């Protein structure tokens, strides 16, 4: 496989954490969910950090956590937050330190997943109507796609599989 880090990027609800855990098990590598990493370091939830300090401060904290996790793990699967690649030069940093995979999922599927898990737990989504959520995700994806598409690999699937993703990564490594 690879002796590097694999970073998963994509919209919230795209399956980065779920696929990341599966991939880590499949490859027998540590799994790091960047949001959980931040919560352990800060001693509070991402939602509380957003509420108390605002998005700008959170994005700086997130960039620092990304760099700390990268330094801490030579080999790992790292699921980033949805906005991680879009701030503080993070996408370029990610691409210099491993293989990045954009998990591409249609907005309708993301909204369905988010409703199933509970939207209120996500700071940028709490209190929005269905129409507002759809508009928010459309606008957010429109802005973020320029960063996501810098990923080494784009993986579009409604039913992601760690095995299938490993095959894509192997194909990329052979071409490299």
From TrEMBL:
Pathway: Metabolic intermediate biosynthesis; chorismate biosynthesis; chorismate from D-erythrose 4-phosphate and phosphoenolpyruvate: step 5/7. Pfam families: SKI. It is found in: Cytoplasm. One of its GO terms (cellular component) is cytosol. Its cofactor is Mg(2+). Mg(2+) binds at residue 17. Substrate binds at residues 35, 59, 82, 144. One of its GO terms (molecular function) is ATP binding. Binds 1 Mg(2+) ion per subunit. The keyword Hydrolase does not apply. It catalyses: shikimate + ATP = 3-phosphoshikimate + ADP + H(+). GO terms for biological process: amino acid biosynthetic process; aromatic amino acid family biosynthetic process; chorismate biosynthetic process. It is an enzyme of class 2 (transferase). It comes from the Bacteria. CDD domains: SK. Gene3D superfamilies: P-loop containing nucleotide triphosphate hydrolases. Keywords: Amino-acid biosynthesis, Aromatic amino acid biosynthesis, ATP-binding, Cytoplasm, Kinase, Magnesium, Metal-binding, Nucleotide-binding, Transferase. InterPro entries: P-loop_NTPase, Shikimate/glucono_kinase, Shikimate_kinase/TSH1. ATP binds at residues 13-18, 122. Its EC number is 2.7.1.71. Belongs to the shikimate kinase family. Catalyzes the specific phosphorylation of the 3-hydroxyl group of shikimic acid using ATP as a cosubstrate. Monomer. This is Shikimate kinase.
């Amino acid at each position: 496989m690879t002796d590097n880090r694999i970073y998963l990027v994509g919209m919230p609800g795209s399956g980065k954490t779920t696929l990341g855990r599966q991939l880590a098990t499949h490859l027998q590598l540590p799994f790091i969910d960047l949001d959980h990493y931040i919560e352990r370091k800060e001693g509070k939830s991402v939602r509380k950090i957003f509420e108390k300090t605002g998005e700008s401060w959170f994005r700086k904290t997130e960039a620092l956590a990304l760099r700390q996790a990268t330094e801490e793990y030579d080999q790992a699967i790292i699921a980033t937050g949805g906005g991680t690649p879009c701030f503080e030069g993070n996408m370029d940093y990610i691409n210099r330190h491993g293989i990045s995979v954009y998990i591409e999922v249609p907005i309708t599927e993301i909204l369905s997943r988010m409703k199933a898990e509970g939207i209120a737990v996500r700071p940028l989504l709490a209190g929005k109507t269905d129409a507002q959520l759809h508009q928010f995700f459309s606008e957010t994806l429109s802005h973020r796609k320029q960063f996501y598409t810098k990923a080494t690999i784009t993986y579009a699937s409604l039913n992601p599989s760690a095995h299938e993703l490993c095959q894509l990564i192997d194909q990329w490594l052979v071409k490299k």
